[in-house]
């Protein structure tokens, strides 16, 4: 590796002693992947596909689910080995090319697809697990995307990637230490994701039991009744006219605010237009907003003081006296209700749509005692709070990992 040189970073005060900058072409030989007709896929030899690489920074045999029928010669020509790095080669956007994944274990008779580039190591410069992370820093990603080409699709190739510069520790010990810290963080993130999924499954099961009356909470034995949703809520839609938006003013809600659960990043309308719109409908604390055009059936209970207007793509549910708005909000999210929403939607409409009359006509089963409705809602709210707390913790650790990667993989923080 006599061509590899170490460079001080003149733009910072970093002590890069023990680090070096290398061109990827000095570390890897690149090869394009296999292209076969569709009829050959579905059985045969394991094949690493685009999404395998895009979704996983490291790949084991159990992660590779694709199959393709190949000759022995094709398998030999396009094999992948432990330590190979695979890069996404082409995509609709430059942000999705050059995403990498390393083969972490021996995989027998496994190949890679034509939408992927294989980087076969020329030497032992890079630690196996270090390769899971070192191509993901903002500096490397910027180099990869800036060196890409674009015609009808974004594209990279071995020649372009060979010129990308990678900053690495000279010693395997430091690379291994960095990889271990980041792997530990990945394990923590993965455990939180699994716990969140488990909690969500528990919630689904609990909803199916409590919202149908199959399971009763202690102390409740009253009757349940079947009602139309329109019997328990006054249902209205928003303005059918696209308003004139302004830089600041009264918040204006649309489908995205519900689906993304984000009511701070909104569009705005003037106070005068808001007053005109709210002559016929006004959002108040305790109301439910439900999506009905595009994305249908998602909802949000407005549990804060609000001054806002909303678009026709949303339905406003004003829950009548004697019924729990919290219970109704959970009921809308239940499997049975979502199934009814789908069945009653206008299947031919683009985008997908459901009319107010169809929403109003949906049958719901509900306890006659509003205190039981509230008690059921409280159980589900507690599960939601647990999930939300875990999701906040997950997002926190993801941000911590991003910062760790940026510091550890550029030498700003040293472990050895």
Defining traits:
416 residues; alpha+beta; 4-stranded antiparallel β-sheet; 23% strand; elongated
Overview of the structural elements:
The protein is built from 13 helices and 23 strands. It is α+β, with helices and mostly antiparallel strands and 416 residues long. The strands form seven sheets. It has a five-stranded mixed beta sheet with strand order 2-10-6-8-4. Strands 15-22-19-20 form a four-stranded antiparallel beta sheet. Helix 6 packs antiparallel against helix 13. The chain is elongated, with a radius of gyration of 28 Å. The two termini are 23 Å apart. Residues 1-14 have low confidence and may be disordered.
Overall morphology:
elongated
For the termini, the CA-CA separation is 23 Å
SSE class? alpha+beta
Q: Report the C-alpha radius of gyration, rounded.
A: 28 Å
| Number of DSSP-assigned strands | 23
Report mean pLDDT, rounded to a whole number.
Answer: 93
- Unreliable residue runs: 1-14
Reading side by side through the largest sheet, how are the strands ordered?
2-10-6-8-4
Major beta sheet summary:
5 strands, mixed
Task: Tell me the fraction of residues in β-strands, as a range.
Answer: 15-25%
Helix segment tally: 13
Name the helicity range.
25-40%
């Amino acid at each position: 590796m006599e061509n590899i040189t170490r460079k001080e970073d003149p733009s910072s005060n970093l002590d890069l002693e023990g680090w070096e900058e290398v061109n990827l072409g000095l570390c890897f030989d690149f090869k394009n992947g296999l292209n076969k007709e569709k009829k050959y896929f579905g059985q045969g030899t394991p094949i690493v596909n685009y999404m395998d690489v895009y979704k996983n920074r490291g790949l084991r045999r159990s992660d590779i689910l694709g199959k393709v029928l190949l000759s022995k010669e094709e398998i030999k020509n396009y094999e992948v080995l432990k330590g190979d790095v695979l890069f996404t080669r082409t995509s609709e956007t430059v942000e999705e090319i050059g995403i990498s994944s390393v083969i972490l274990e021996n995989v027998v008779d496994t190949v890679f697809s034509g939408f992927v580039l294989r980087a076969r190591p020329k030497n032992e410069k890079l630690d196996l697990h270090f390769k899971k992370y070192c191509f993901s820093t903002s500096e490397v990603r910027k180099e990869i995307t800036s060196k890409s080409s674009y015609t009808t699709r974004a594209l990279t190739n071995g020649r372009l990637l060979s010129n990308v510069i990678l900053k690495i520790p000279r010693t395997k010990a430091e690379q291994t230490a960095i990889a271990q810290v980041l792997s530990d963080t990945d394990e923590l993130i993965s455990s939180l994701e699994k716990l969140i999924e488990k909690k969500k499954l528990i919630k689904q099961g609990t909803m199916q039991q409590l919202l149908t009356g199959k399971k009763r909470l202690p102390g409740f034995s009253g009757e349940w009744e079947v009602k139309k949703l329109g019997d328990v809520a006054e249902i209205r839609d928003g303005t059918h006219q696209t308003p004139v938006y302004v830089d600041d003013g009264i918040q204006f809600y649309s489908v995205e605010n519900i689906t993304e659960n984000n009511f701070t990043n909104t569009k705005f309308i003037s106070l005068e237009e808001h007053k005109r719109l709210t002559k016929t409908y006004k959002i108040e604390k305790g109301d439910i907003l439900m999506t009905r055009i595009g994305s249908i059936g998602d909802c949000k209970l407005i549990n804060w003081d609000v001054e806002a207007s909303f678009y026709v793509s949303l339905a406003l549910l004003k829950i009548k006296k004697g019924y729990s708005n919290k219970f109704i909000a959970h009921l809308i999210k239940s499997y049975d209700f979502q199934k009814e929403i789908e069945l009653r939607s206008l299947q031919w409409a683009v985008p997908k749509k459901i009319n107010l009359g169809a929403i109003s006509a949906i049958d719901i089963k509900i306890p006659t005692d509003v205190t039981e409705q509230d008690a059921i809602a409280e159980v589900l709210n507690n599960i939601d709070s647990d999930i939300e707390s875990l999701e906040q913790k997950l997002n926190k650790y993801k941000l911590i990992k991003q910062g760790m990667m940026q510091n550890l993989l550029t030498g700003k923080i040293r472990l050895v």
